[in-house]
Amino acid sequence: MSEKNINEESANGKVMSRKAKRKIISIVSVCLVLVALILVNVIAGVLTDRYPSLTADVTLNGSFELTEDSINIAKAVKKDVTITFLTDRTSYEAYDTYTKQATRIADLMKQYSGGKISVEYTDLVKNPNIESQYQKESLSVTDVIIKCGEKYNIVKLKDMFNFDIYGQYQYITSSKAESAFDTAIVKVTSDVETKIAILTDYTEDSYDTLSSVLSANNYKLVPMSIEKNDIPEDINTVIAFAPTEDYSKEAVEKIKKYLTNDNKFGKNFIFIAYRYEIECPNITELISYYGMKLEDGLAFETDTSRTMVSGDAYRNIAAIFGSKNYTSNYEDDDLPVIVSMSRAVSISNENIAVPLLQYSKESGVCPYSADESWDYRDYLSGYATVMAQAVSGDEKAQSNFVFAGSTEMWNSLLSQSGFTNVKYILNMMNYFSSREDNGVYLADKVITDYDLSTVDMNSRVAAGVIIYAVLPVLILGAGICVFLVRRKK
Fold first, then answer.
1. For range 406-421, the mean pLDDT
2. Is residue 38 exposed (0-12), middle (13-18) or buried (19+ Cβ within 10 Å)?
3. Labelling 238: which of 40, 88, 122, 346 has CA 20 to 30 A away?
4. 191-433: which CATH number, 3.40.50.1220, 3.40.50.2000, 3.30.70.250, 3.40.50.880?
5. How far apart are alpha carbons 237 and 219 in whole angstroms?
6. Helices 421-433 & 208-216, crossing angle to 10 degrees?
7. Dist. CA 113–CA 71, nearest whole Å
8. Where is pLDDT greater, at 47 or 228?
């Protein structure tokens, strides 16, 4: 073989060798990238399982994140609490689209509690001894047991989710799991349950939502009749919920006696007025005794910036704080307290009574006798008062008499998370009861399927930028770098 052929063969061999090396390097590089991606996913999975706060919630309303109140509840836990799901995690999350949110909430509660809250999964079917520990309860695999010491709370699906029925099928429509977990944790860790009496005489309106909110915050509503019984000494606060008839003179005297408390004072009475006109001379006298005058009509608001319903001057009005009572923890950007269909009251003795909630300077009171031809301009008085408070007693102890003109503010509007009615009312209750655990305001955070499945706009934009701009630029840049390196070789 000639020297020329040998040199050519040697050169070809080197070229082939370089090509083979490049192929090997390319294959190895691809393999390394794939291994790196797998490792990153495995490590990310381990870290997010151990530290749930490392994950990002990109749903529209932060459906898989805790509210500030829930975070505060978890951080405030001082005792060991166990959250036990009565089936394995995979089976529980597979039950419905919503149930994964419940397991996520439990994880976050554990994370923010600093180790005080633990989460367990056990199989009710395979471990029948669980039922023997809760013989008085009817347990299901979809139940969650939240326990602290000997105290426990069974959280059922109906507590965590709202249901609807289509034909013969029942299905989940929205989630309120966060508030259900909050409520259970507060109940099993709190050592105090404060009793509040609610007068049921002549009451027709429902107070179910008020009862639910108070119960969630470890208050116990005790129904009683002021016409038949005296107010027990161990009751610190009494609520009269929208009586549709006048109290007897004897009942009014019982209320005064209760508030005076043998000159020891220290008691609280909240009168929530019925929205319609009734003959009530004895109730009117009671209100007058505490420095207020019951107005003959409903408060209305003509400032459209404060009305939530277009064209309705009576319903869903954003109230103004007439005093700073019960607003010490409010921020400037806090949502308003909403009042609806409210009876009006005025202050007749400023030495003992102050307005708590008012409408704007463009408000007034529409008399019950007004017909369709009435002109609102004739009744504009400005700053119509819809809630007021009187104080009696001395420097050592005081009793409080509160007039509230709106039943809806104290019940149906409490379930609407866009307002701060719950916060304001619990501020008052906690103050009256000298509760140290004030600052916790439990209300349903209802999450719909739309919230769970919808990505918020900022996340959509960010994902779009990464997919359609950042990744293509990185790939193009990598390609250019590889081309330049090979060209030099």
1. 85
2. exposed
3. 346
4. 3.40.50.880
5. 11
6. 60
7. 8
8. 228
